[in-house]
Structures are given as C-alpha cells and as structure tokens.
Design a protein that fits this description.
Elements: H1 32-46, E1 54-57, H2 64-78, E2 82-88, H3 95-107, H4 118-131, E3 135-141, H5 151-160, H6 162-165, E4 170-177, H7 184-187, H8 190-196, E5 199-202, H9 208-222, H10 230-243, H11 246-262, H12 270-280, H13 283-290, H14 294-307, E6 313-314, H15 315-326, H16 330-342, E7 346-353, E8 355-362, H17 366-373
Parallel strand pairs: 1-4, 1-5, 2-3, 3-4
Antiparallel strand pairs: 6-8, 7-8
Helix pairs in contact: 1-2, 3-4, 5-8, 9-10, 9-11, 10-11, 10-12, 11-12, 14-17
Length: 374
C-alpha cells in the first residue's frame, strides 16, 4: 500500500518564513510606480538634504508597508548618513513612544523608562543628528492611530520644525494611512501644514491576476512542490479577493498548510482552505484588539455584550450604563468611540431626532469580538 501519511518529522513547508505576513520578498511585484515615486521623494536625503514628505495611502494589504521596508533596506545597505526609522503607530502611538524608538535606532537601546522627560530624549536625538551629520527619515505606519488626542500634530510639529530649535537637523517624514476616509491634510493644524506639504502616493487594491501571481510565488517559495494544486491556488485567491486584504490570503495559506500537515496529508485540500479562512478573515480584528488599552477593551466588551440584545446602540445610553464602573467622562468616551470607528471596529452614525443622536453598530459578530478580547 502506498504510504501517504506524513512522518512526525516531515513538513509541507520549504521555507515557513515566506508565509509570514511581515515577510519582505526579494521580488516585490506590481508596485514599481509607487516605489519610483517614493525613491524620488527620498532622494534629497541621500545627498545630505531633507527628504521630501510623503503620504502613502491605500487599503490594508496593498503593499504600503512592504514598499517602505524594501526601500529602507536599500538605504541601510548604501549609506550611514541617511538613517531610516520605521514606526508602527498601532503600538507606538504617543509622541514620547515615537521619539524613544528613534532614539533606540540611533543609540541601540531605548531611553530609561522612568525619570526621563521627552525633551531630554529629543535633545539627545538632535545632538546625534547634528554631531554625526545624519539625515533622519521617519515612516509612521498606520498614522491614523495618531489622530486621537492630537498626537499627529504633536509628532509632526516636533519632527518637521526641529531645525528651528536645533539648527542643522534634517528630518523627513513618510506617513502611511490605511483608512481611506482619513484626510490627513485636514486633520493637521496650520503650523504643521506649513512645513509638511506632502506628496500623496496611492496604493490601489491588487487585482485578481496580481493576487494570483503573488500567492503563486509565495507558495512556490514557501511550500514543497505538489502541496498546493492550481485548483486550490485559485480557491486561495478567491478567498483573498473576498476579504480584500492580501495579508488575509497569506495568513490563510499558512493556516491551511498547518492544518493539512497536522492531519498528515501531503497536499492542501478544499476543507483546509475553507476552514483556515474562517480564522484568517478576522486577522484585522485580532491585530486591532491587541493594540487597545485596558479602558478601550472594557468599552468594546460592553458594546459586544450589549449588541447581543440590540443591533443599534445609542451612544448616550451606553455611556450612562458604563460611566460609573469605568469612572470615565463623556468627552473621553466619545474620543474612544471615534477611535474605534476609525479603526474599523464599529460604525458611528449620526441621526437627527431630539438633537443629534450618535448610533453605534459593530462591524464584527459580537461573539467573535468577545472571543478575541478574551
């Protein structure tokens, strides 16, 4: 009888790293125009000048972050005088946290976590830039997370007007935005706008044929021959298109391979892909919930429990029910629900009635939200 079961030490993965969503491929297809525009914006920094400021805008999973990472790797290979710093604003979303990451890039470690002021850290950063004649290029990924509590203005003002307090500093900024409803040029104030003046580079969603080529290349690099048939590749592409996010497709392929491997099969089947999609389609929800603060998690938890009884929730009524247990003012509560709306966790609508009523609905199944919160 032909042996089809996998031995305990066998695997379907040729290179599992290729199927990680933060993997940067050597051959990066279908973003040549955007990469050329970005290179043009960065080029003055390679000559010792200040890089031109840029906004990279597009839906999640359209290649914005990978484009930046590819160019930053090229910069680091070619020069020490232009230092690129990538910041994930889902994680580091305050002025102090962002400057601390810049400090770590230049010094090799974070500043002391206590007893150190923002001014001390930025003074140290500026001194290094001036002393070593370094040009700084900062990429703020998912910068829409900085829109709350005016952090975007604080960060951009500090970076882009640094030369006024520290003569000789040269800093350029790339802002990456994944929410197409966000108009960053309207969100920043006049004193920032006067020095920001960005060019905007748009990253359109990948088309069917493009997703097919990308997923095929990942499968060929990451999996052994014969593990993913052409028919199953088409199914992966279809599920990826359904989600509209390339990262979902990559995560889906990884999970489907693990499922087939666990079942001791030598190839991926339809049931592996469909089962994996039921998890991968919540990729955005999973990642976003991880970035929430305790107070925000408690409010989202309240929304999910209440949504089990009522699909549409009146913001004022929800606030009344949770304000005592959370000891939160309405202004802060409203800031949090605006943030959750921008993060695509909830929909926040306004309706005219007795005054202007704010209506909250969830973008995900309440049970799933509670599951990921737990």
């Amino acid at each position: 009888m032909k042996k089809n079961l996998l031995m305990w030490d066998e695997t379907l993965f040729r290179d599992p790293e290729v199927l990680e969503i933060d993997y940067v491929p050597e051959q990066f297809e279908f973003r040549d125009a955007q990469m050329r525009e970005l290179a043009f914006q960065i080029r003055p920094g390679l000559r010792g000048g200040r890089p031109l400021n840029t906004i990279c805008k597009g839906l999640p999973g359209t290649g914005k972050t990978t484009s930046i990472r590819k160019l930053f790797a090229e910069i680091e290979e070619s020069t020490k005088k232009l230092v690129p710093v990538y910041i994930n604003c889902q994680i580091d979303n305050t002025k102090f946290a962002i400057i601390s990451q810049i400090y770590r890039k230049l010094v090799g470690h974070l500043p002391p976590s206590s007893g150190t002021s923002f001014k001390q850290v930025f003074d140290a950063v500026a001194r290094i830039l001036i002393k070593d004649e370094i040009v700084l290029l900062v990429a703020l990924d998912d910068a829409n997370y900085l829109l709350y509590e005016n952090e975007i203005n604080k960060v951009l003002y500090t970076l882009l007007r640094s030369h006024e307090s520290y003569e000789g500093t040269r800093i350029g900024v790339i802002v990456i935005v994944s929410d197409l409803d966000v108009d960053l040029t309207r969100a920043i104030d006049a004193r920032v706008a006067s020095v920001f003046r960005p060019a905007e580079i748009y990253f359109p969603p990948y088309e069917n044929a493009e997703i097919h080529e990308i997923m095929k290349a990942r499968a060929m690099q990451g999996l052994f021959q014969g593990v993913l048939s052409e028919e199953m590749l088409d199914l992966v592409v279809g599920q990826t298109l359904k989600s509209g996010d390339l990262r979902v497709g990559i995560d889906l392929l990884k999970r489907a391979t693990l499922t087939a491997e666990h079942a001791a099969r030598r190839s991926i089947g339809r049931e592996d892909i469909c089962g994996a999609y039921e998890v991968s389609k919540y990729l955005h929800l999973s990642y976003t919930i991880k970035t929430l603060k305790d107070e925000e998690r408690q409010i989202l938890n309240s929304f999910a429990r209440r949504a089990a009884q009522e699909h549409e929730m009146n913001a004022g009524e929800v606030y009344k029910s949770i304000k005592e247990s959370l000891s939160i003012g309405y202004t802060r509560f409203y800031e949090i629900i605006k943030k959750m709306d921008a993060m695509r966790l909830i929909n926040l609508e306004y309706r005219e009635g007795k005054g202007r009523t704010r209506i909250i609905t969830l973008r995900y199944d309440p049970a799933k939200i509670l599951e990921y919160l737990a």
